[in-house]
Amino acid sequence: MPKLGMEPIRKAALIKAAIAEIGAAGTLEVTVSQIARRAGVSSGLAHHYFGSKDQIFLAAMRHIQTLFRDRVRSELKAARTPRERLNAIIAASFDPEEFAPEIISSWLSFYVQAQNSVEAKRLLRIYTRRLHSNLVFNLKPLTNAANAELIAAGVAALVDGLYIRQALGENPLDRFQTMGLVWDYLELKLGQGAK
Amino acid sequence: MPKLGMEPIRKAALIKAAIAEIGAAGTLEVTVSQIARRAGVSSGLAHHYFGSKDQIFLAAMRHIQTLFRDRVRSELKAARTPRERLNAIIAASFDPEEFAPEIISSWLSFYVQAQNSVEAKRLLRIYTRRLHSNLVFNLKPLTNAANAELIAAGVAALVDGLYIRQALGENPLDRFQTMGLVWDYLELKLGQGAK
Amino acid sequence: MPKLGMEPIRKAALIKAAIAEIGAAGTLEVTVSQIARRAGVSSGLAHHYFGSKDQIFLAAMRHIQTLFRDRVRSELKAARTPRERLNAIIAASFDPEEFAPEIISSWLSFYVQAQNSVEAKRLLRIYTRRLHSNLVFNLKPLTNAANAELIAAGVAALVDGLYIRQALGENPLDRFQTMGLVWDYLELKLGQGAK
Amino acid sequence: MPKLGMEPIRKAALIKAAIAEIGAAGTLEVTVSQIARRAGVSSGLAHHYFGSKDQIFLAAMRHIQTLFRDRVRSELKAARTPRERLNAIIAASFDPEEFAPEIISSWLSFYVQAQNSVEAKRLLRIYTRRLHSNLVFNLKPLTNAANAELIAAGVAALVDGLYIRQALGENPLDRFQTMGLVWDYLELKLGQGAK
DNA sequence: CATGAATGAGTTTTCATTCAT
DNA sequence: TATGAATGAAAACTCATTCAT
């Protein structure tokens, strides 16, 4: 049992536990004690390392976004054309680990959190902006600028909507069909207004 | 000043106040006292009429769904063809009163609530099912059955996704553009797989 | 058991209990629960009526100052000359109820509190300013202005110092001797620089 | 880098840090961690050397009293007559280092502490007794015994009162005027009842 | 000697809920 | 019908203290 350098280990465990608890509860209404217990530490330690419950949530949010960003990057590695890159971005959203119930639930909860916390709103905005510009950048070679903006908005909304449905257990489609729905939208829109 | 027959009046006021509070907070984390205060009554009375906080939320949820259902019905009155009816359903979702910040925020909050409360989940399911069958029913004359299901799923997801973006203040489109995005999706899909 | 208009009754009881607890402990390190228990109510109620622990303390401080001010006024009623008024002010400080252990202890605690709380500092300043101007006002007819300021400062310091000694149980003098010490100082100073 | 003989160094650093923290906070409500951090060590070490928080406070109190005692001794060196010695004792109280905000604040805090801790009370009593007998001893050659007791009580109260005013930032006098106030009191009393 | 990890008890605070009137 | 009084359980947060290394 090492006694030094525990901080990053504990922090990681607490963040993971927070996501798991939030995912399981489907809400941010989880207690620090629950999170700490799941992480195998006392609630005092959670406060010791994070300072407050909000900070735990923000760290979890950052973590989830980092996971997503890394996934996007990894998917983008093999992509060569704009179309491939667009598909890669969408694929990242529906990767099994990303589309897992607890992660989806967490995303949704953080969306709600963003309405109350300035920092959460900031984080979420960074994410939405990055996603948007990423989409637009790869759409522009394939259609005109105005259209690129619209398609990006449509894709993003579609993904969010499908996430919600999934979180609610109201998505009749499986993972591939879900992903297919978005790809199909993209194809249709690009087919329509192609350069 | 008759004291009889106050129940429906008080209940309505409390429901309205609950939606307003939830909408303003962007969360279900509002207190019964806040709701009661906004309704101009004591918190005791809120419990007297509803029994518990959860019941207030469920009543508010039912109310919002009723408002939406009525709006759909009203929009459908003038519609004669399946296409008109589909457009009417979408139009109902983006009616100014439906697309108002507090209503959108409430919808989102209730989506979250559905993850915890069986009754909330049941209510939400009724709504999603009705919307889905309504869409499918009007899509079937225009495309094949499998496609109708997919399009209905797409439209529903798109609407939900656009609601979220709107709730977050991250929707770059105005109300008409937002609605147009959905109509456009529908047109494209129907143009593609038309009977 | 009346159910209406309890607020002032409860507030008064809580303030009294707070002073008693602080006096008994000799510290502000008393818990809200202790105060509430002594007042015969739940800690929740204390917060309900005061909002926070700090507010309870501030209310207690205000109460103690009000008691003192009233006592000064009452003592001043019978005073006709400046000298009588000066004696009256001093007498108020050493009235048996004012010089009671719990009241003295509370004064001392609030002096400490003033170092942390802006509002407490403000309250204390009001009190010290009022006392000072009260003294100076009655000293001016008896000596020159500069001297009046000095004597007022001396009297105030002497009173505070004697309070501390009393709080610590280190005052070898009884109440009358204590009061006499201050009167004596006053007489000496006035005899010295009399107009 | 010898590890032996660290104890006195660490203890001294911790005591100094404790006084600084208490002085800055104006309260004993400082954490062991704060003190340790200011001393540049871990909170564990503070406990290692002192055993408990209370012991740290007591040590700090002793230190402050030792500083004062040394200062009195040093001032007394040059004093030849009782009157000079009395002036020297007073001068020690208002030496710039003794009259520094953090030291004054600490004194006041320890006065409060004495109401709770038996040991603190004992320490404080030793100090007050010594000061008292020191004053009385030098007063007796100049006045009668009973008067000497009274004057000693008056001087001590005056000094304490002026300290409080200073701690609260409510002392309108500068250091010399403050000291002058006490000297003046002494002169007056001695002039009055001189042998 | 020294650290930082870790705990758990204690405190403030919030709030749904109950109840006497 | 309606209120506001009152509670008590639960939650966040703090911190002295202990301990393995």
Walk me through this protein's architecture:
Four copies of one chain form a homotetramer. The first copy, chain A, has 195 residues and is mostly helical. Chain A has one domain: Tetracycline Repressor, domain 2. The first copy, chain A, is built from nine helices and no strands. In chain A, α1 crosses α6, α2 crosses α3 and α5 packs antiparallel against α7. The first copy, chain A, is elongated. The structure holds a DNA duplex (21 and 21 nucleotides).
Give a short overview.
The first copy, chain A, is an all-alpha fold.
What is the level 1 CATH name of chain A? Answer: Mainly Alpha
Write down the Rg of chain A: 19 Å
Quaternary structure of the protein: homotetramer
User: In total, how many beta strands of chain A?
Assistant: 0
| Arithmetic mean pLDDT of chain A | 94
What count of structural domains of chain A?
1
Shape of chain A: elongated
Total DSSP helices of chain A = 9
Q: Which structural category do the helix and sheet elements of chain A fall into?
A: mainly alpha
Per-chain topology:
The structure is a homotetramer of 195-residue chains.
Chain A: H1 6-25, H2 32-39, H3 43-50, H4 53-77, H5 82-93, H6 101-113, H7 118-139, H8 145-167, H9 175-193
Helix pairs in contact in A: 1-2, 1-4, 1-6, 2-3, 4-5, 4-7, 5-7, 6-8, 7-8, 8-9
Chain A binds a DNA duplex (21 and 21 nucleotides) through helix 1 and helix 3.
